[in-house]
Backbone:
């Protein structure tokens, strides 16, 4: 095809020369879309010549053609092109139809330019607004799940407003976040997660955005796409383009209302056959459920001792110590229902857009109001957004956008904490009613009441201030964790084209948020909050960013063209946190009182925090593009960067290069176009980096608060004249950036008139000079030294297959499959260091970076095995614990994939998203603890010994005896696995072996199922409604996994790179969502 | 010309950019240095954690004074320990005490300040490393606590004891100079009073001679040791959450208090009430001794069992001083070391100590009607005497009483674990602690997983939990 074109061009050249004497003719016309709106910038070319024009603001064009034989080719991105013979006409009005499929996807590059993805030498994916809003997810990040190969979204729980971790192409750093940089309309925005992620579902700040405002998200996965962001882009870039009004479009109003009903998707299996106690005997304050068989009790009321202490709860019910447990009543269900509810959210979104010849505007307002499945947990997000474009002149355009977002939430404590919800709830034996959780304790009939005591199953009489674990009703009612965020993102962009070949861009923006946190624990709360605690924090975070870009384009001839760009970038980040904590309230104050007085504690029980942080990065960059014969596209970029976070001895600046080549080999026409309609090979190489965290180049002194392991602490500031010592972490003035060097090779193919699309990418990257706090031997006096000390690599494959299976005027059936696989390896740690503990996980089982393994492996106590892998057993035939801890699992999935299908028939459409994650391990910490406590569902099992069996502690269960437990063979003959084993090495506490509870965390889920109906008939139009879209969506409806008890997409460490530990996290949800969109 | 223009443009950008990012990275939230007295204070606070915090609680469990009921504490009672079980003690020693004390010491030496402050740093260094050697066996001494050595070398336990003695001698010399007192308030124990520190240094010498079974040297050193209860090395505590007595913080506040109780064996020695005493036959009281007041001072019954007394006038009262090296220890060294050479000498010192106790001793506001520690007669230790009903030699009977008295008077301190191991072969005289699991007594804190991970000089074979340390072989 290309060849014939060339020949034709050649002929035309002759014709041009020979036809000099011919008369010229002016053709005028207007180009509009189907709705009669003028189209601006449509290309009108006299076929076979270089003669061409573009339509103006009103869609008008005027072109001089040579003669009546001229054919005008009219092309416009996103529309079906037309060829029109001029004939005798002098006026030609054209109406272009929107093309139903955009063949060449438009990608927004790292610098904010729109480029056809067909011309790019690296892999990208674009997620459209429809894809995002169709998901009906509660947050923007979650709506990206399963939509692009190579992007992994890891959630934590179903808590309202919970954040999620975004990982592109595996882990790029050991201790750093390495989530992708978020760039919104050319300005980087914060996706920070602040606060204690262990105890609370913390938010990802990207979720502050209203998903309805987003036009598209270009996912720049590789280093090449991101080289122009240097040390900010190690994890790739999500380039978000927000919606704008269109020029020359009359006002359009869009109203969307969405309602969702949410329920828990998986529940832990709990046993309610045996009651509280141990050794098969009821014990009034026992923490475990190894007691008697509840069904064998008499069923009468419990015998109680009314002679001494008693407790009157919040409902006036009096509780006495139980002497004999007679009741057979079970409370698992009612206890659960007291804490959980059906969650729901209501979202309303209104957007107005429109424009005239020189200006366009987009305005939106949204409100998202959610109540979680845990009572008293909530999240609300309200946003206002406005974006305006104005043509200052023919050659310059100014656009400005402003977004204001406000979020508020209350999130219930969870996870490892004795004040967490599930920890107290799931451990509560089935025969304990949690109803009475707060009240007055009387030590005897004549004693004065002690008010405000917490009653828990561990303290059924509330006869001590120590609740041990919270009653779950206390957790939701007497503890608060509120946060409110006020945020604005503003940006301006001035684009001037002083000359035909020169474009100047000035872009500046600011992202600033203020977060107020308020935690409150009524006196009587478990653990350290027993005397009442109030924690207030006030954080401000701002990012200021500016770019100045000059871009020169040059068309050398019809076969060669290119452009070159130079730019300057300024980026400043600042964080200020002020906070205070008071402990031991003087005046009794609980959550109902709304008194937030910092003076409500004596001075030694008040503490304040104040930190300030600031860093600055500046860079110069250049980018050059070159294209040849319309089929070869070459790009090279270079960035030189200076940043304040490097030390005095660093050799600044640092350079980050990239290069990519795209070759559209299909233009060679080796295969017939009907078969192979498009084919491209691409190759790229690039380097990106990570700069040090701020304030790591100097040695610092701190006033330490020395913790007493498992106990309290001593603050040196309270002794003598106060204490100051060097910080345990050492600074380093000779830091270099962490550097990722990546090459990728890939192909994009389209077959059968684009009915079938296939894209494949292989990438390989090496990350060197990884900045870590590497551990020092304690005898050296310091905990860690910050430095460039490790290396890692990733290899991966991304495949995307899309097909239009069937299409006619009524039907449209599409299907696509995504697959990605990433293999990470820690290739080098500091000499002599085998592994580095990461700041995630539990005290026991935690994540590590270990030499030769993937990042974030699970580490803990192992079963002792001999060289052949056989379990070493003790004298009784039970496993022995290895005295040295080690790797017990790898939570990284082997591969991930998704299948997206859609069927539409007339006005109905149905879409399905299936997602899978295969091969990652997960440590069932909750199961381990509940097994220890005799609460795990399968622990109802009874078995009769067929021979004399040894127990863990060496007791003998004689043949024929029936016992609670099971018979197991660890390799040294059958043994009786009963309570003794579970409260010993077979459980969590008592030094349990952790690897027993490492399981396969693979899952497959029906992520989305959505049915919608488009209503647009004469009637609706007559009442002013252009279109009504009614949608019913099910989210996360089905889950297939071998992991019991909870959705394996859970993480005790919150939004973090390391995963694979389940420990009393709040549950995930599935939802039924209904939505109505009206367009006026 | 054009070239020049480009060069100047590039340098303008380079220097311009450099300027924009300059001088922003010094953390405004923290200072970069502090005078020596602040690191001294911090080291003294950290040392308090070793001797009255988790390490002491763990040693107490291994010595049979505590019983872990659940979670981590249960692993010590069940002997299910790994190298990760003891790393906090190790890190506290080297990072929080030794490194800070070495920094204080270095700045004193750099500034040419001799005398008392320098002596104090040496005493703290000696106690930190002496204790570490007693618990772990071989440890880094010369190369520990400083960044200089990438893989600090381990020295034998006996070599460390030798260096600790030498260090204490130097400390005494420095303390005796009478000059160079640290700034007021910075020494939290004695506010720089040299005579108190000299006494402490001598008691420490005696303590470590006891560890190495050099009883006569111990006796000599103890004679210059702590001469009154007030001169005991203790840490003052307050009533704020983060300066309260660590036993109070643990047993009254922390949630892990549910996991640890005082052992039945320990309680049985001093619980006078037959109805509550778990093993009434163990009770020490008789016609000359009433332990009621001491029981009430040390222990209380809680819903979990018997635990240290956190209420007013209790051993673990919120602001009870944290005991590191006490008058009681010094006097009982005199008694034990004395008894090992002469029965009468030992008896005299024991009776002196009982006399101290009879006046209330280290108890806080005891009910004097419950206090009775009458002097023993030599005949009390003869076969059939009130301290020798089982007919052992009178020397052993006396030694047994002294060791038991140490076991009780040093309750909550690491020394009880050291005593137990030191005397484990003296079957007639030792405190008859039964292993909480199995048949072997624990012999050591097992290394540190963090050290194992990062120090190539860490012994390739980690000594086992039941392997005796050098001095106890």
Residues:
């Amino acid at each position: 095809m290309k060849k014939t074109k060339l020949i034709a061009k050649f002929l035309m050249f002759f014709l041009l020369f020979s036809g000099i004497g011919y008369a010229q003719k002016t053709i005028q016309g207007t180009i509009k879309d189907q709705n009669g709106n003028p189209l601006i910038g449509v290309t009108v070319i006299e076929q076979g010549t270089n003669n061409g024009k573009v339509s103006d603001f009103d869609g008008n064009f005027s072109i001089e053609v040579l003669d009546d034989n001229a054919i005008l080719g009219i092309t416009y991105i996103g529309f079906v092109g037309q060829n029109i013979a001029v004939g005798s006409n002098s006026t030609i009005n054209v109406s272009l139809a929107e093309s139903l499929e955009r063949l060449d996807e438009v990608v927004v590059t790292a610098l904010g330019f729109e480029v056809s993805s067909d011309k790019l030498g690296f892999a990208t994916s674009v997620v459209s607004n429809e894809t995002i809003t169709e998901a009906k997810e509660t947050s923007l990040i979650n709506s990206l799940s399963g939509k692009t190969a190579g992007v992994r979204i890891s959630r934590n729980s179903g808590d309202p407003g919970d954040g999620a971790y975004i990982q592109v192409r595996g882990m790029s750093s050991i201790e750093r976040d390495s989530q992708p940089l978020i760039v919104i309309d050319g300005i980087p925005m914060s996706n920070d997660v602040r606060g204690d992620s262990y105890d609370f579902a913390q938010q990802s700040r990207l979720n502050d955005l209203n998903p309805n405002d987003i036009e598209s998200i270009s996912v720049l996965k590789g280093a090449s796409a991101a080289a122009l962001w240097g040390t900010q882009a190690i994890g790739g870039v999500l380039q978000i383009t927000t919606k704008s009004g269109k020029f020359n479009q009359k006002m359009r109003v869009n109203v969307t209302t969405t309602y969702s009903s949410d329920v828990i998707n998986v529940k832990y299996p709990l046993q309610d056959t045996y009651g509280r106690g141990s050794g098969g005997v009821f014990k009034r304050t026992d923490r475990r459920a190894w007691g008697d068989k509840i069904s064998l009790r008499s069923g009468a009321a419990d015998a109680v001792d009314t002679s001494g202490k008693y407790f009157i709860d919040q409902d006036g019910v009096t509780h006495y110590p139980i002497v004999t447990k007679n009741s057979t009543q079970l409370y698992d269900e009612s206890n659960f229902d007291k804490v959980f509810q059906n969650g729901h959210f209501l979202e309303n979104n209104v957007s107005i857009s429109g424009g005239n010849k020189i200006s366009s505007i987009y305005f939106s307002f949204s409100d998202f109001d959610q109540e979680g499945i845990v009572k008293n947990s909530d999240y609300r997000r309200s946003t206002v957004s406005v974006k305006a474009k104005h043509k200052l002149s023919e050659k310059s355009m100014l656009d400005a956008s402003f977004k204001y977002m406000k979020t508020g939430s209350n999130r219930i404590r969870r996870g490892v904490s004795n004040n967490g919800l599930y920890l107290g709830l799931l451990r509560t034996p089935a025969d304990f009613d949690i109803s009475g959780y707060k009240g007055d304790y009387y030590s005897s009939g004549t004693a004065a009441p002690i008010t405000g005591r917490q009653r828990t199953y561990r303290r059924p009489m509330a006869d001590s201030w120590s609740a041990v674990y919270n009653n779950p009703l206390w957790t939701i009612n007497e503890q608060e964790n509120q946060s409110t965020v006020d945020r604005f993102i503003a940006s301006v962009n001035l684009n001037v084209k002083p000359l035909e070949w020169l474009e100047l861009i000035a872009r500046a923006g600011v992202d600033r948020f203020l977060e107020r946190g308020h935690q409150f624990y009524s006196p009587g709360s478990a653990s350290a909050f027993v005397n009442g605690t109030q924690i207030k924090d006030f954080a401000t975070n701002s990012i200021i960013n500016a770019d100045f870009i000059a871009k020169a384009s040059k068309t050398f001839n019809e076969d060669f063209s290119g452009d070159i760009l130079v730019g300057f970038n300024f980026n400043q980040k600042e964080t200020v946190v002020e906070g205070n904590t008071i402990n031991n309230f003087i005046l009794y104050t609980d959550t109902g009182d709304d008194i937030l007085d910092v003076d409500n504690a004596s001075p030694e029980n008040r503490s304040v925090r104040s930190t300030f942080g600031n860093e600055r990065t500046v860079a110069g960059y250049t980018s050059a593009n070159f294209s040849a014969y319309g089929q070869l596209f070459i790009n090279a970029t270079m960035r030189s960067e200076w940043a304040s976070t490097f030390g005095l001895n660093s050799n600044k600046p640092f350079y980050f290069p990239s290069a990519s080549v795209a070759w559209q080999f299909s233009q060679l026409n080796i295969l017939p176009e009907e078969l192979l309609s498009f084919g491209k090979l691409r190759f790229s190489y690039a380097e990106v980096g990570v700069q040090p965290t701020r304030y790591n180049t100097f040695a610092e002194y701190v006033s330490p608060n020395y913790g007493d392991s498992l106990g309290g602490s001593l603050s040196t500031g309270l002794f003598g004249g106060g204490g100051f010592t060097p910080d345990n972490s050492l600074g380093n003035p000779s830091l270099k950036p962490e550097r990722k060097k990546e090459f990728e090779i890939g192909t994009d193919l389209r077959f059968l008139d684009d009915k079938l699309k296939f894209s494949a990418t292989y990438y390989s990257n090496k990350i060197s000079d990884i900045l870590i706090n590497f551990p020092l031997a304690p005898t050296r006096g310091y905990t860690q030294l910050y430095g460039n000390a490790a290396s890692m690599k990733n290899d991966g494959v991304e495949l995307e297959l899309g097909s239009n299976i069937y299409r006619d005027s009524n039907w449209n059936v599409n299907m696509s499959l995504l697959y990605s696989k990433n293999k990470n390896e820690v290739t080098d740690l500091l000499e002599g260091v085998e592994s580095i503990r990461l700041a995630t996980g539990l005290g026991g089982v935690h994540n590590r970076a270990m030499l030769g393994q993937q990042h974030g492996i699970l580490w803990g106590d192992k079963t002792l095995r001999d060289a052949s892998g056989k379990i070493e057993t003790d004298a009784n035939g039970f496993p022995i614990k290895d005295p040295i801890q080690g790797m017990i699992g790898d939570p990284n999935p082997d591969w991930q994939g998704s299948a997206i299908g859609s069927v539409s028939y007339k006005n109905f459409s149905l879409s399905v998203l299936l997602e899978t994650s295969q091969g990652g391990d997960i440590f069932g910490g909750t199961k381990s603890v509940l097994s220890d406590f005799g609460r795990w569902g399968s622990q109802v099992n009874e078995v009769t010994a067929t021979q004399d069996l040894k127990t863990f502690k060496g007791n003998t269960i004689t043949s024929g005896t029936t016992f609670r437990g099971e018979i197991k063979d660890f390799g040294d003959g059958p043994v009786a696995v009963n309570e003794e084993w579970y409260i010993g090495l077979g459980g969590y506490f008592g030094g349990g072996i952790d690897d027993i509870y490492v399981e396969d965390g693979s899952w497959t889920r029906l992520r989305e199922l959505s049915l919608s109906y488009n209503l647009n008939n004469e009637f609706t139009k007559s009442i002013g409604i252009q279109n009504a879209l009614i949608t019913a969506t099910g989210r996360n409806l089905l889950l297939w996994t071998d992991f019991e008890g909870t959705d394996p997409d859970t993480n005790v460490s919150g939004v973090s790179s390391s995963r694979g530990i389940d420990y009393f996290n709040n549950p995930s949800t599935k939802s039924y969502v209904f939505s109505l969109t009206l367009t006026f | 010309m054009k070239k020049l223009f480009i060069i100047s443009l590039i340098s303008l950008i380079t220097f311009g950019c450099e300027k924009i990012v300059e001088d922003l990275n010094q953390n405004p939230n923290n200072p970069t240095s502090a005078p020596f007295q602040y690191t001294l204070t911090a080291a003294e606070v950290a040392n308090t954690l070793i001797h009255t915090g988790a390490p002491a609680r763990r040693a107490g469990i291994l010595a049979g004074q505590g019983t872990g009921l659940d979670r981590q504490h249960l692993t010590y009672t069940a002997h299910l320990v790994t190298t990760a079980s003891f790393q906090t003690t190790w890190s506290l020693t080297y990072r929080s005490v030794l490194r800070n004390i070495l920094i204080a010491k270095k700045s004193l030496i750099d500034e040419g300040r001799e005398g008392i402050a320098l002596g104090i740093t040496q005493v703290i260094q000696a106690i930190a490393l002496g204790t570490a050697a007693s618990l772990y066996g071989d440890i880094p001494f010369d190369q520990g606590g400083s960044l200089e050595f990438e893989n600090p070398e381990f020295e034998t336990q006996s070599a460390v004891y030798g260096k600790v003695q030498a260090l204490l001698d130097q400390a005494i010399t420095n303390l005796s100079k009478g000059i160079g007192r640290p700034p007021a308030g910075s020494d939290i124990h004695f506010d720089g009073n040299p005579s108190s520190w000299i006494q402490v240094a001598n008691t420490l010498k005696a303590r470590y001679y006891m560890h190495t079974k050099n009883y006569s040297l111990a006796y000599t050193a103890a004679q210059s040791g702590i001469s009154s209860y007030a001169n005991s090395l203790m840490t003052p505590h307050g009533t704020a959450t983060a300066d309260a007595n660590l036993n109070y913080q643990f047993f009254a506040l922390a949630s892990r208090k549910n996991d640890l109780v005082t052992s039945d064996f320990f309680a049985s020695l001093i619980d006078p009430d037959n109805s509550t005493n778990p093993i009434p036959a163990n009770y020490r009281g008789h016609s000359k001794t009433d332990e009621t007041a001491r029981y009430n001072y040390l222990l209380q019954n809680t819903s979990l069992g018997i635990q240290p007394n956190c209420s007013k006038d209790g051993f673990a009262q919120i602001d009870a001083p944290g005991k590191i090296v006490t008058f009681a220890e010094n006097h009982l060294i005199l008694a034990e070391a004395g008894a090992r050479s002469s029965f009468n000498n030992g008896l005299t010192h024991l009776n002196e100590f009982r006399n101290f106790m009879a006046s209330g001793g280290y108890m806080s506001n005891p009910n004097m009607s419950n206090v009775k520690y009458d002097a023993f007669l030599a005949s009390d230790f003869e076969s059939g005497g009130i301290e020798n009903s089982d007919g052992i030699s009178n020397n052993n009977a006396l030694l047994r009483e002294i060791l038991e008295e140490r076991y009780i008077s040093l309750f909550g301190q690491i020394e009880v674990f050291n005593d137990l191991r030191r005397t484990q072969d003296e079957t007639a005289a030792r405190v008859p602690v039964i292993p909480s699991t199995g048949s072997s007594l624990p012999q050591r804190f097992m290394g540190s997983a963090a050290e194992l991970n990062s120090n190539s000089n860490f012994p390739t074979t980690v000594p086992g939990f039941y392997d005796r340390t050098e001095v106890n072989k």
User: Anything to note?
Assistant: DSSP finds nine helices and 62 strands in chain A.
